[in-house]
Amino acid sequence: MRKLIMWNVVTLDGCFEGEKSWDLSFHQIVWGEELERFVIEQLQTVGTIVFGKTTYEGMAAYWQNEKDETAEYMNSLPKVVCSSTIEKADWNNSTIVRDAATEIPKLKKQEGKDVFVFGSGNLSETLMKERLFDEYRLLIAPVFLGKGKKLFADGLPYQKLTLLESRPLATGGIILRYAHVTDEIRH
After folding, report:
1. Which helix or strand (DSSP H or E) is residue 50 part of?
2. What is the distance in angstroms between the CA of the first residue and the CA of the last residue of the chain?
């Protein structure tokens, strides 16, 4: 069974984007050779990438025009866009699903490399409420935005996590990997 893994860059005050959609300027604070190596290392373990509509459209617009090693992975990997409104998904190897809570468990049961969710705050919230994530990978950027879209909304179910890894970067960012403590989940 494949794991479902969240990957997001968040600020110290919990934002994964600024006030405007796709305001990701704080990513530059943590970008460097270490993070670039980690991204490639991580992409080598990805079997499928899952996005919400907005993230899918933004990622497709960006990565289809890039030509580096990361772009090769992003453009060749199978992609699933979870949306009840998107009409077509033109990015290479893309599939549309209408009901993430039903379809993502099916993806997890398939053979192969892990399934990753990049960005996609609304989708991530849905998947968290359904307790579908097996692992959370967060890169904490050493900055307070003050205003922006929070990654973790109020009302999420209680889920105790255990630290799998913490990896400080020379840029001041810290990569954190967490998994569920399965016997500690409260209903």
Report:
1. strand 46-52
2. 24
Rounded to two decimals, the pTM is: 0.92
| Sequential DSSP letters for 145-178 | -SSSEESS-TTPPP--EEEEEEEE-TTS-EEEEE
For the CA atoms of the chain, what is the radius of gyration? 16
Q: How far apart are CA 100 and CA 160, in angstroms?
A: 23
Quote the CA–CA distance of 53 and 89 in Å, as a whole number: 10
State the CB neighbour count (10 A cutoff) for residue 142: 14
Strand positions, DSSP E, 58-157: 79-82, 94-97, 114-118, 135-141, 149-150
The per-residue pLDDT for range 9-28, each reduced to its tens digit, is 999 999 999 999 889 999 99
Q: How far apart (Å, rounded) are the C-alpha atoms in residues 135 and 28?
A: 24
